[in-house]
Amino acid sequence: MADFVLNVADDLTSINLHEIFASVSYAQLYDVTPDQAVQLLAQVGIIGGVAYDISEGVDSAVILETDIGGLALCGEGISFSNADVPTGGTVTSFINLGSTGVQSYFYYINVSAVALYNAMATVSTADDAAIFAQAFSGNDYFTLSRGADKANGMNGNDVMNGMGGADTLIGGAGSDRIIGGAGRDLMTGGTGADRFVFTTTGQTGTSATSADRITDFTHGVDRIDLHAIDASTVLSGEDAFTFIGAAAFGTTGKGEIRFEHVDAAGTASDFTLVYLDTDADTAAEAVIRLNGLVTLTAADFVL
């Protein structure tokens, strides 16, 4: 299971490791324990006073200085030749420092130091993709920045939290949990039984053009999780939504969910709108957009 945190908006679907490699001006290998790795990274400015969780079992760290910051590659048994080329070992943590601080970090990965070096040394991005596919092959956790990020969970049952910004989140294979967060997000579950989570009505828009969009929602397989939202701002207590199909909203103050199909069947611009009503009027306080014409039932939601 990899744990990935992104502090600065980035497109993780098109990372070119060679661009990082080309900017390296200095490299040094250290033999360290996990605690020593944390101390070392603080000394060279990689940590900057923040306590990062270095994976257990770390016995070596490579510090790379770049034109705009630095990198720390921590792992087990990392070794170099006299020509400063990796000859063995495994990278288990990867911390990327930019000009404004720590931009991103990966924990609990398991990548060959030799394969990572080769990917960084070549201009082609095909081997970069293979490295990331290996790193994110398990049940991974992504915490993205508050900017407009792009990320692909690839394989495994992943948890993806977009936090803020207009994110593009792709779960990939596996049963993923995708949380767009604030901003107008584009979410694709991929294969598997995926769950699209909304914890407040403010995490999506109020119209077809401002709503979060789910590109591949499959009735009876995927679910939209709304259970963290208090369905009624009028009634006391924590209320659950009631699914009313295609019927019109009432005025009782009871939280309701309805859906409607938009555009003619069989055209490229078909979509389904899911409306959430949390007060006593007939207007929606939140809208979620699904690609295609999807006939929904209460079972498609976690209420």
From TrEMBL:
Repeat found in the keyword field: yes
Keyword Glycoprotein: no
One of the record's GO cellular component terms: extracellular space
Localization terms from the record: Secreted
Alphabetized InterPro entries for the sequence: Hemolysin-typ_Ca-bd_CS, Hemolysn_Ca-bd, Peptidase_M10B_C, RTX_toxin/Mannuronan_C5-epim, Serralysin-like_metalloprot_C
Any GO MF annotation of the entry: calcium ion binding
The protein's required cofactors: Ca(2+)
Domain (Peptidase M10 serralysin C-terminal) ranges: 153-302
UniProt keyword annotations, A-Z: Repeat, Secreted
UniProt xrefs under PROSITE patterns: HEMOLYSIN_CALCIUM (PS00330)
The protein's name in its UniProt record: Putative secreted protein (Type I secretion substrate)
